[in-house]
Design brief:
This protein is an alpha+beta fold. The protein contains 10 helices and 5 strands, in the order αααβαβαβααβαααβ. Helix 6 runs antiparallel to helix 10. The longest helix has 19 residues. The two termini are 21 Å apart.
Length: 227
């Protein structure tokens, strides 16, 4: 890890998404969160890192800062995870844990499950952010099945300024979610189940004292695997 990492406010200025959809509080908090993950993983300067699925590059800039001038970060999206892991001695994962210690994050858990269920009945043309949400247990089982060994894992509670949970809950409450249910390949029983999950989400949001704006991210599962 870089002994003198750049401030998250500086890293945030490298992200193009901030020009498209300004949200400086979330963006800076997201960089602070990523730096926290890098501290947990203890990635040394000079490392070579392969990042699978960088999306908009939020993590890429934090990784580049961590490995320093003598390190290398290659970010590939989309990429074959199977091919990538054949050449990697260490696998680092940070994923939603599908659990929370906060009532404000409970709607996020329900939304993730609801969207995951819906995507099971849609084809590959879907562009939704969540398409296959695996639990830590499922990820560990899959990794161990191909020779990886978990050497460390822990759960962290994201800070309140992160807005991913709020956004994903709002997408699951949107009319487009209902439209996608109706056009899915599920039969009427499946569609009733999905609509019921959306009702459960609405009830969970209604129980929050501060309403939808107080929604928090669910807990994050952080793990390190080695061959």
């Amino acid at each position: 890890m870089n002994p003198s990492p750049l401030p998250p406010e500086t890293l945030a200025t490298f992200l193009l998404q901030d020009l498209i959809r300004p949200d400086p509080i979330h963006t800076i908090a997201a960089q602070r969160y990523r730096q926290h993950l890098l501290q947990l993983w203890q990635i040394p300067q000079g490392s070579s890192v392969l990042e699978i699925g960088p999306g908009q590059g939020d993590f890429t800039v934090a990784l580049a800062d961590a490995v320093g001038r003598n390190g290398h970060v290659v970010a590939v999206d989309p990429a074959s995870l199977d091919d990538a892991l054949k050449h990697s001695p260490t696998l680092l994962i940070a994923e939603y844990g599908m659990v929370t210690s906060l009532k404000e994050a409970f709607p996020h858990v329900i939304a993730a499950l609801a969207v995951n269920a819906l995507e099971s009945y849609r084809d590959d043309s879907s562009k939704r952010n969540i398409r296959t949400r695996l639990t830590p247990k499922q990820i560990k089982s899959a990794a161990e099945g191909v020779g990886w060994r978990a050497v460390s894992e822990e759960s962290i509670t994201p800070e309140s300024q992160l807005r991913d949970g709020y956004r994903e809950v709002q997408m699951a409450r949107h009319r487009m979610f209902n439209d996608d249910i109706q056009t899915s390949s599920g039969d009427q029983k499946v569609k009733s189940m999905l609509l019921g999950m959306q009702d459960a989400l609405e009830s969970a949001v209604a129980r929050l004292d501060g309403g939808v704006k107080t929604i928090r991210n669910m807990d994050i599962w952080v793990a390190r695997f080695e061959k």
